[in-house]
Design brief:
Chain lengths: 48, 152, 100
């Protein structure tokens, strides 16, 4: 499962639906990978 | 012995279901209190100001918010009809719905964390039907973890 | 033990039915509450409410207002921090909560 799907646009759904997403997004893997990347080649800053 | 074992399994299953339904009911009670509090607050504010707030300074429910660091670079593609968006963040973010915002604004009287002053409890009890009052009183002491059976 | 278990399961059955009844009543009350035109008009938060709720000054707060049944898809971090929104019933509004 590489992504999560939720329906938005209604009030007062189940708040827990976003807890799982936030846990997934803030899982350490990607940031760990990023630190590895950052460590090797400093990425050029993106122009806005 | 076999019948006792079956009853034991049935008892365990019911306990699990009751706990899950209890937290569902608590969330519904919180949402009802938070929404009523929000409407009351806005009504009083508009009466005091004698006018509604400027339209571009308010956000009507329902909405969700995405918060991230200000350092985050966000690429955003939008379809012409605004029916589709694609966001690409280069850093972590969090997503919260409107009820989470209302709780953080204190609209749920602190019941969501079981820290409810006597004054707040009085306000909360007045915002729910009589049948739910025992739950509100119980929630004010802290999240109901055990099986709570109201006398009613 | 058998007699004890029987009466306990009976009590739990009663409790569960009572909960089902309260949950359906609560759902109905919440729907009537949020659909009431007056409450719809007064059901809003102000920008300062959002700023207060996500108080750290280095946070950017993006607000998304979408029609019902809009699909939000969030990808795994290893695939990049992607969020896609797809609406079937109207345009989606996205705006940043302005600073003070």
């Amino acid at each position: 499962r590489s992504r999560m799907l939720v329906s938005i646009g209604e009030s007062f759904g189940h708040s827990s639906r976003f807890q799982k997403i936030n846990q997934m997004v803030n899982s350490s893997e990607r940031s760990f990978k990023r630190t590895l990347d950052m460590g090797s080649i400093p990425k050029p800053l993106k122009r806005l | 012995a076999q019948e006792c074992q079956n009853l034991e399994v049935e008892r365990q299953r019911r306990l699990e279901r009751i706990k899950q339904k209890q937290s569902q009911l608590q969330e519904l009670i919180l949402q009802q209190i938070a929404f009523k509090n929000l409407v009351q607050r806005n009504r009083q504010a508009e009466q005091q100001a004698n006018r509604p707030p400027p339209p571009n300074s308010i956000i009507h429910l329902p909405f969700i918010i995405v918060n991230t660091s200000k350092k985050t670079v966000i690429d955003c593609s939008i379809s012409n009809d605004k029916f589709e968006y694609l966001f690409n963040f280069d850093n972590m973010f969090e997503i919260h719905d409107d009820i989470e915002v209302l709780k953080r604004m204190g609209m749920a009287c602190g019941l969501e964390v079981g820290k409810c002053s006597a004054e707040d409890l009085k306000v909360a009890r007045n915002l729910v039907p009589k049948a739910l009052e025992p739950y509100v009183i119980e929630m004010a002491k802290g999240p109901i973890s055990n099986v709570y059976i109201t006398g009613g | 033990r058998h007699k004890e278990l029987q009466s306990e399961v009976y009590d739990l059955t009663e409790a569960e039915e009572q909960l089902d009844d309260l949950i359906s009543k609560c759902n109905l009350q919440l729907r009537l509450l949020t659909e009431d035109p007056q409450n719809k008009k007064l059901g809003y938060v102000r920008c300062q409410d959002l700023r207060k709720s996500f108080d750290s000054p280095d946070q950017l707060v993006m607000v998304i207002r979408a029609p019902p049944e809009t699909q939000m898809q969030v990808s795994e971090p290893s695939e990049g921090y992607k969020v896609s929104l797809k609406s079937m019933h109207g345009p989606i509004d996205v705006f940043l909560c302005p600073d003070d």
